Amino acid sequence: MAKARFAFTLIALAAMCVSAVAQEMSASDWFKKSQDLDRNGSYNESVQAYYKALNLTNETLKKNPNDADAWQTKGLILERLYRTDDAAIAFGRATDLNPKFAEAWLHKGKVLDLVANRLQGQERTNTFEAAIRAYDKAIEINPNYGEAWEDKGYSLSSLATFNKNLSKYNESLNAFDKAIELIPANDTRNLALAWDGRANTLVGLGNTLNDSGKRDEARGKLEEAINDYSKAIELDPNFTGLEARLYSVGVLGDLGRYNESVAAYDKVIETMPANDTIYAAIVWGAKGSVLEKMGEHEEALKAFDKALELNPSDTIAVQGKDNALKAPGQQAEADASFAMAKELGYSTSVATQDNTAEDWFNRGQELFRNGSKEEAVKHTIRP
Fold it and tell me: How far apart are CA 122 and CA 125, in angstroms?
């Protein structure tokens, strides 16, 4: 009996110690724990930890509302929770209190870029421009801030794509070149993201040139993009490389190098993460689009069916299947497929029959805007 009481006492003491440690954890401790949980794929637990960090930070700000570091911490937490409007306000308070706070300017730019992606018209343009001004402030404080140059490149690229602005594409390329020059060689993640962003910019520029009839120049930009994607894949094969592989093989299809593109998709399928069904569905759907362009309707149907098996709500795959069914004359099944696409939210006003690498990139952006954190983080969100 005495042994049982002693064992119970030990358990109680251990529980008290654990509780004490939890109470002693600071906002920074919880934030770090949240990031670790995020990286391990424990998303529900990470959200809980982020809110614990947020509550502690709010307590700090109640005691001292002029604490710029606390506002920065709050902004970082809200950024990771994708509460981007609130994060922008927090980073704004940090920069108001400390105008030389380069990191706060950087993250203000990041969240403004994310906010811009869900806006339309002039409001979207204005918000991208505000993000770029925030990056410029960070660079003014620290001209060697490679990550600020990198993120400036992304916002310029998004602005250029939205407005089909050739000069902004060139400014974006210059920013990525500067980022690649400044980011340390051992920071392979950010270097890969810079190469990936540069490649995406070249694809957008190539598409814009192609639309204006400058086909040879456009082709050269797409060829250059493939080289840049390969550098991103080499530097960071398991994160940025997932995105870069998908875009690179899409560009091969855009260039009419269909056999190479299909072979590359097969290689991606062999090596892609087994548990990432959204990414796998996008790959199979993209492969189906290339096969359809080749006139391989039956093989295209198999690819689209595989995409839909993995993600039944993939509207682009449903529409791709509809197009493939029309060619062999299976109109009744095609009509049923298209009806399903409409039920899932497909709109002929926003989708296209021939999906380019840029289309697949935009799909990743939509994953983020629709709140699909697990998928978007892996494919489109820059850390």
Answer: 5
- Cα–Cα dist 358/205, whole Å: 10
Cβ(62)–Cβ(101) below 8 Å: no
Residue 259 has a CB neighbour count (10 Å cut-off) of 10
The C-alpha atoms of residue 87 and residue 82 are separated, in whole angstroms, by: 8
| In contact, 247 and 282? CB cutoff 8 Å | no
Residues in the chain: 383
Over residues 18-48, the pLDDT tens digits come to 444 445 788 889 988 888 887 787 888 989 9
Buried b (16+ CB within 10 A) or exposed e, 359-369: bbbebbbebbe
- Taking residue 16's Cβ as centre, other Cβ atoms within 10 Å add up to 10
CB hemisphere CA count around 156 (13 angstroms) = 28
273-351 architecture in CATH?
Alpha Horseshoe (1.25)
Q: Which helix (H) or strand (E) holds 83?
A: none
Rounded CA-CA distance 101/145 in Å is 12
Angle subtended by helix axes 166-182 and 146-163, to nearest 10? 160
Longest dimension (CA), the chain: 89
The predicted structure's pLDDT at residue 106: 98
Average pLDDT over residues 158-173: 96
Region 106-125: mean pLDDT is 96
Residues 6+ apart with CB under 8 A from 54: 27, 74, 77, 78, 81
Domain spans, the chain: 273-351
Angle at Cα 282 formed by Cα 347 and Cα 177, nearest 5°? 100
